[in-house]
Design brief:
The complex is a heterodimer of chains A (about 950) and B (about 170). With about 950 residues, chain A is α+β, with helices and mostly antiparallel strands. Chain A has 42 helices and 16 strands. The chains are: A alpha+beta (about 950), B alpha+beta (about 170). Chains A and B meet through helix 1, helix 3, helix 5, helix 7 and helix 10 of A and strand 3, helix 2, helix 3, helix 4 and strand 7 of B.
């Protein structure tokens, strides 16, 4: 076997690496690196031509420096030169440098592609593999354009070496994933599928990844792979442990290939052909049987390899979901793993069982393991294993075991890890509702939930309990009694106060007969929590108080006194003050009849999908939540009471957007939206909700109660663009991707691409906090003239952005004619109740629509002369604000979108570029010349185009880049 | 006009997103990326992975699901998992989709380590430092385009030996 000694072949490299390792400090390291960089630079720039060895050594040093985390801005050309060397080691270093350091839009791509082309046609398998690996590693569109036609030929040619076939298959896969439109498999399909039969297992291993990917995209075209895969699998599964020699791993024949074959089969339904299906079932049975056989080795590698196949086989069995016998056997096998001493196996068994629980054939078999799973939830050391146990309990829950599972989950919640509490709370809430036989159990469970994990009880959960209580009159008395008792606790969670305030406000009368919970006792209890609560809860309590006045006239005087106190009526919070003023007026002026009408009990909530379930789905991703609220209808579905508030707000103002997370009383949606509606209109809609707009006008406006309502505080108009938005815009003139904006709450990332006069931009809004953003809304507008110059289309984003989540928005842009201004992006959302309002300039600049134009020197100068009218030229002379490094300058000019023309300007220090700006109305040819003066650290930039505004704008934009 | 699908938006994506070898102090000994990340993103991932795996002990599984949101494309990582194994002071980590086969990749790591061990005759961390450019060759023989390319140790070593003779 080869022994590789330290850095053999390149002594200078080994010495350099040793030096770096011996550096005592970061400063010393940087010093040593700078010395080396200077040395390499001088070697590269020197008069003496470097031999291949030296070039390789220096390029390799540069690569090492880059991998240490330092920027490298030269040496690319030398690396490209290495590609055409005839020595393997030189070529290899060249390709490695390119793979690691060269990004796809480099100007060098043509030279690189040329070298690759030569190597691909060299018939030297080593060189062919190097070239293919480079394509697979870079995978750029330019490479796809150049080689997508050639590689399938190499892949299926009879005389291609096996190792080259392996590389070609995966290289093609990479190109297909990056540029599916360029990889046309048509004529090759059948021959590629038949690679499954190849003698060489390595070729099959590589080719099957390609086939799996192609099959998942075009299942029909590739369906012949099913029978081939089955017979290949069958041959492997039935072979003895030593039959496959090189491909036997710790006595397991071809474990990775087996897994890949089983995965390929998961792209298809069960085989229709009886013989094929029979053979496959036989394979699956053999795999299950082998799991029961005594191990051939005690090594963990043996059991891991064996079980890798087993788990993949079980995935396939679950995917088919049609063989009860296999499903139950799989379940039993996993059951054994639940108690295995290997943590990995316990984890994987819990995970796999979760999917088995949703199959009707194996649900019962999964349920038999409940005690083991509960035990896992209590005792596993690794939180990720406990998480899986909780997932499985949730998945196996049904009417027969719901009480036990919910109880276990609740008791686990007392000590659960913070990272999984919120999800656990949602699960408990969903299960409690779904399997509630009697609603007192449901109410108990949710109140317990709030008691144990109040901080993690999201709005959806407490909205839901209120909705259910309101919709079910048989539980209202019990709920009032229980919440009253829960509020007795000296320290109770604010969510409990919210639920308590709401329920007692509606149904306090049901327990008022008992002197221990007389109206005044109820009120005093609620009011004792008042000063500890946040503004939204206080507002909710004020609404409960006015409801009390209606329910219990005897409390009127006490409550009016509270409302009249300075701390309410002069509260610095506008919302609280307004409520106090209005409720006080309402209670003193309105007749009992009017009071009874406007403060009537809330009507049942409309039936909608459980917003808790929706939230869990969002947290876990679609498909992860299997429990459906099957009999939700009969009970009335929950939905944020906020929707109610929102709907009402719409009714009142016709302008607000319903927000699923606004609170029950519509507090969040109360900010008046339209100037035409009395600003208080939406404030009291919670009280008037069932009466709708007519009641609002009759009950409130005409009486003029609320004319003193304060004006809106937080403006909903888009904020003016941030002062730094021009700077942010400039950052994106020469690049298309990156982070546009970031503050403590929000991060906005951009990926964009442009073709001709069209562009597509993906905006990613990331919520950096752990709290949801509500009423999240973004708009893109084209101010003034821009409206007729750009056509910008967006879809609205979801109004709710969970903590830690990211939402994506796609913007389609069409350039109608040239433009100067940038579209404005306005983002509005509420974070903890406070309105955030940010405006930015969207980095869409005229240069994005450049098509690079290659031309020879003669053409360039001819066109340059043609554009000699004074208004066609724009020129700027300016000081360099960054370094004047050649590679950086080139990268920026290329990023601008123009073609960088070599050998055009007689002065090699200068840069000239050419491009055509594509707009719908016209094409604008554009020529550019940049003359750096290193001594003076100045640039002169000259733009010429057929349109004066374009010359000026591009010149302005580009001048900011250097 | 057809638009390029941005790499990270397209499903079914590359199986392996990256392979990392780090020591306990967090120094990277190999970083092989199968998706395009910019340098900041890479650095952030390297730090995150280090923070996630080094706190785990032998009683933990060899799998960690990762949830990241701080950077652009990482957001996708909420659906990914790191499969890792520790050898002396080195952590070998592979990042794959949550639906991928854990044990197959776990043994994929071991298979890779055995090849390195054979190739470098009892491999140690320093071998990876001084021969970093050769480690890339080993990786490319065994994993390509984010997929498993060759699993036979004999075949890989034979190929490496042949390449060695070309020095």
């Amino acid at each position: 076997m080869p022994a590789v000694s330290k850095g053999d072949g390149m002594r200078g490299l080994a010495v350099f690496i040793s030096d770096i390792r011996n550096c005592k400090s970061k400063e010393a390291e940087i010093k040593r690196i700078n010395k080396e960089l200077a040395n390499i630079r001088s070697k590269f720039k020197g008069d003496k031509a470097l031999d291949g060895y030296s070039k390789k050594k220096y390029v390799c040093k540069l690569l090492f420096i880059f991998l240490l985390g330092h920027d490298i801005d030269f040496g690319h050309m030398e690396a490209v030169n290495l590609l055409s060397s005839n020595k393997y080691t030189e070529k290899q270093i060249g390709y490695l440098f390119i793979s690691v350091l060269v990004n796809s839009n480099s100007e060098l791509i043509r030279l690189i592609n040329n070298a690759i082309k030569n190597d691909l046609s060299s018939r030297n398998p080593t060189f062919m593999c190097l070239a293919l690996h480079c394509i697979a590693n870079v995978g750029s569109r330019e490479m796809a354009e150049a080689f997508a036609g050639e590689i399938p030929r190499i892949l299926v040619a009879g005389d291609t070496m096996d190792s080259v076939k392996q590389s070609a298959a995966l290289c093609l896969l990479r190109l297909y994933k990056a540029s599916p439109d360029l990889v046309l498999m048509g004529e090759w399909t059948s021959r590629v599928v038949h690679l499954l039969n190849d003698q060489h297992m390595g070729v099959v291993t590589a080719a099957i990844s390609l086939i799996t990917c192609l099959s998942s995209k075009n299942p029909d075209e590739f369906k012949t792979c099913v029978s081939l895969a089955v017979s290949r699998l069958s041959r492997i599964v039935s072979s003895a442990s030593t039959d496959l020699q090189d491909y036997t791993y710790y006595f397991v024949p071809a474990p990775w290939l087996s897994c890949k074959l089983l995965r390929l089969l998961q792209c298809y339904p069960p085989p229709e052909d009886g013989a094929v299906k029979g053979r496959l079932v036989e394979c699956l049975e053999t795999i299950l049987n082998k799991a029961q056989e005594p191990p051939k080795s005690k090594k963990v590698q043996h059991s891991n390899a064996k079980n890798a196949i087993l788990f993949e086989a079980i995935s396939l069995i679950i995917h088919y979901d049609s063989e009860p016998n296999l499903l139950v056997r799989a379940c039993n096998q996993l059951g054994q793993f639940l108690q295995h001493r290997e943590t990995n196996l316990r984890y994987l068994a819990l995970e796999s069982m979760c999917t088995l629980a949703s199959s009707e054939f194996s649900h019962e078999a999964v349920k038999t393991h409940i005690e083991t799973v509960i035990n896992a939830l209590k005792t596993e050391r690794d939180v990720s294993v406990r998480q899986r146990a909780a997932d499985l309990l949730y998945a196996m829950c049904d009417r027969s075991n719901a009480k036990q599972i919910v109880a276990e989950m609740l008791s686990y919640l007392e000590t659960a890890d913070y990272s999984i509490r919120e999800e656990m709370v949602l699960k408990v809430a969903i299960l409690a509702e779904k399997y509630a036989v009697d609603y007192s159990w449901y109410v108990d469970t949710i109140l317990n939930l709030i008691r144990i994990a109040g901080d993690y009880v999201s709005e959806e959960v407490w909205y839901r309990v209120i909705q259910i209580v309101i919709n079910r009159d048989d539980v209202q008395g019990y709920a009032a009694k229980t919440v009253f008792e829960a509020l007795q606790a000296p320290a109770c969670h604010e969510n409990m106060v919210k639920v308590g305030g709401y329920i007692l406000g509606e149904f306090g009368n049901l327990i008022a007969g008992d002197p221990r919970s007389s109206p005044l006792v109820q009120f005093n209890l609620l009011h004792s929590k008042f000063h500890l609560c946040s503004v939204p809860t206080r507002a909710l309590l004020l609404s409960a108080y006015i409801k009390f006045i209606n329910l219990f006239p005897e409390t009127k005087a006490t409550i009016q006194e509270v409302l009249r106190s300075d701390s309410q009526i002069r509260n610095s919070d506008v919302e609280l003050q307004q409520r106090a003023v209005e409720y006080l007026k309402l209670s003193s002026i309105a007749s009992t009849d009017v009071l009874a009408t406007v403060l009537e009990e809330m009507p049942p909530f409309p039936e909608r999908e459980s917003s808790i379930l929706a939230k869990l789905k969002k947290k876990k991703g679609p498909g992860a939540v299997t429990v459906e609220l099957e009999d939700g209808k009969e009970r009335g579905e929950l939905n944020g009471g906020g929707d109610r508030g929102g709907d009402a707000a719409i009714a009142a103002s016709n302008a607000s957007t319903p927000s699923p997370s606004a609170d029950l009383l519509g507090l969040r949606s109360t900010a008046p939206v339209s100037g035409t509606t009395p600003s208080a209109g939406s404030l009291l809609v919670d009280v008037f909700s069932e009466a709708g707009p007519s009641a609002t006008s009759a009950g409130v406006n005409d009486d003029g109660f609320l004319s003193s309502a304060p004006p809106t505080v937080a403006s909903e108009d888009p904020a003016p663009p941030l002062p730094e938005s021009d700077e942010l815009l400039n950052k994106f003139v020469c690049k298309n991707n990156g982070v546009l904006f970031e503050n403590q709450l929000l991060q906005i990332g951009i990926k964009s691409e442009y073709r001709q006069n069209l562009g597509r931009m993906y905006l990613f809004y990331g919520n950096k906090t752990s709290v949801q953003f509500v009423s999240f809304n973004t708009t893109v507008s084209c101010p003034g003239e821009l409206q007729s110059q750009l056509n910008v289309q967006t879809k609205t984003v979801e109004p709710l952005v969970e903590g830690g989540a990211q939402v994506q928005q796609v913007i389609n842009i069409e350039c109608l004619t040239d433009f100067i201004d940038a579209p404005l992006l306005n983002i509005k959302f509420r974070y903890g109740g406070a309105l955030q309002n940010i405006s930015l300039k969207l980095p869409v600049t005229i240069n994005k629509f450049f098509q690079p134009t290659e031309m020879a020197a003669a053409d360039f100068f001819q066109r340059w002369k043609q554009l000699s009218q004074p208004q066609q030229e724009a020129q700027k002379i300016f000081k360099a604000s960054h370094g004047m490094d050649t590679e950086v300058l080139k990268a920026k000019l290329l990023g601008l979108g123009t073609a960088l023309l070599e050998n055009v300007d007689p002065n090699p220090e200068n840069y000239v570029c050419a491009g055509v700006i594509q707009t719908k109305a016209q094409q604008v040819g554009c020529l550019l010349r940049l003359e750096p003066n290193a001594q003076a650290q100045m640039y002169r930039l000259t733009l010429r185009s057929s349109k004066d505004t374009v010359s000026q704008r591009v010149c302005d934009l580009l001048a900011e880049q250097f | 006009i057809t638009f390029l699908t941005l790499h990270f938006l397209s499903s079914p994506a590359i199986q392996i997103r990256f392979i990392l070898i780090q020591n306990r102090a967090g120094k990277t000994r190999l970083a092989k990326w199968y998706m395009q990340f910019d340098d900041d993103e890479k650095q952030k991932l390297i730090e995150e992975v280090h923070a996630v795996v080094t706190v785990r002990d032998a009683k933990h599984t060899n799998f960690v699901e990762v949830r990241l949101y701080a950077c652009l494309s990482c957001l996708q990582f909420r659906n990914f998992k790191i499969i890792y194994r520790r050898y002396a002071g080195l952590y070998f980590c592979i990042c794959v989709d949550v639906t991928d086969n854990n044990l197959a990749y776990l043994e994929g790591i071991h298979n890779f380590v055995e090849v390195l061990n054979e190739y470098f005759h009892n491999v140690c961390e320093l071998d990876l430092v001084f021969n970093f450019y050769k480690v890339y060759t080993v990786v490319d023989e065994m994993f390509l385009a984010g997929e498993i390319r060759e699993t036979s140790q004999t075949k890989v070593l034979k190929q490496l030996l042949m390449l060695q003779s070309l020095e």
